[in-house]
Specification:
Elements (H helix, E strand, L loop, with lengths): L6 E7 L2 E9 L40 E6 L2 E5 L1 H6 L7 E8 L9 E9 L5 H14 L2 E8 L2 E10 L2 E7 L9 H4 L9 H13 L12 H14 L18 H18 L30 H4 L12
Parallel strand pairs: 1-5
Antiparallel strand pairs: 1-2, 2-6, 3-4, 5-7, 6-9, 7-8, 8-9
Length: about 300
């Protein structure tokens, strides 16, 4: 089932307008997630919204937003007042300008979305905007309101649709100076660069995301499967970093190791990504719980670990 649109409205380039829908291009729902439990009872922890002074629980309809002015002073803002801060970008993505993709600093990128025509009308206008951006080899910059906040969005063609990437505002990006100022100025010799380039050439490849595997996610599922099967859990040795005493010697050994590996094993074509990691196929058996009444329900196979490849 297709995900719900995060936003619906209009895309406008000057006098050209069309209805569009914005969908998330990424998802974290397939990742392993944990609940917090009471160690003594095995029950889930429930969070309640309580008054900080009285300690009494507060109903959702009685909760309003407030801006902190001082330690104990807040300016209360109602939902209606927030809705009155009406911006054009609440319902329309107005394209303000076109820029080169190379000019967008990667630090400003937040998350990608898919932008598609909404409904049967407007496909012609959408295609005009999409193909104009494609033909000019530019990125369109506009504004959109999501989760009660206005965001800058960068639009670029992707197949038959548009990919919109939310961008940060300058005040959200920290200056690198405070982090990089203490890095020492080091003179890198030509010999070191030559050796390092050789290592890079040995490891050169192409960006193929299908080959990526979330090893931590796989390890988590393996851990859960072992616990469900009642197998003992043994701690694995943690990798330890070693201090590099002689940089040139380390570079030479890196090249030697790579060359030796290449000589011993002929290079094979890259394997295609597995449909799912070994630990991601299915859970084995239920975890032994503390409540006998729930044992029968716990024997049902967990559906979440069964994942489809992208």
């Amino acid at each position: 089932m297709a995900p719900r649109a995060n936003w619906k409205g209009f895309l406008r380039l000057s006098l050209v307008t069309c209805p569009v829908a914005l969908y998330p291009a990424t998802s974290d729902s397939e990742k392993v997630s944990f609940n917090q439990l009471n160690r003594k009872t095995g029950h889930r922890i429930k969070y309640a919204k309580v008054d900080a002074e009285t300690g009494e629980e507060v109903a959702n309809e009685d909760i309003v937003k407030g801006y902190k002015v001082d330690t104990d002073t807040f300016i209360e803002v109602s939902k209606e007042e927030l809705e009155n801060v009406a911006l054009e970008s609440t319902r329309t993505i107005e394209i303000d300008e076109f820029v080169d993709r190379s000019e967008i600093d990667p630090r400003y990128l937040i998350r990608p979305y898919y932008l598609v025509p909404d409904g049967k009308v407007g496909h012609d206008a959408f295609a005009v905007v999409r193909e104009t951006i494609r033909e000019m080899n530019k990125v369109a910059i506009g504004r959109v309101v999501l989760t009660n906040r206005e965001h800058i969005i960068a639009l670029e063609p992707m197949d038959k649709g548009l990919m919109g990437t939310l961008l940060r505002y300058p005040y959200e990006v920290r200056s690198a100076d405070e982090y990089f100022d203490d890095i020492q100025d080091v003179k890198v010799t030509k010999d070191m660069l030559d050796l390092a380039r050789h290592i890079v050439n040995q490891k050169a490849g192409h960006f193929e995301p299908d080959r990526f595997e979330d090893q931590y996610e796989t390890a988590l599922l393996d851990l859960i499967n072992q616990k469900r099967a009642g197998k003992p859990i043994t701690a694995k040795a943690r990798p330890r970093g070693e201090n590099v005493v002689d940089l040139m010697d380390a570079l030479r050994k890196s090249i030697g190791g790579g060359a030796a590996a290449s000589a011993e094993t002929p290079k094979k074509p890259a394997k295609k990504a597995r449909k799912a990691a070994a630990g991601q196929k299915e859970m084995l058996m239920p975890i032994a719980g503390k409540k006998p009444a729930k044992e029968a329900a716990a024997r049902k196979p967990a559906a979440k670990p069964q994942r489809k490849s992208a």
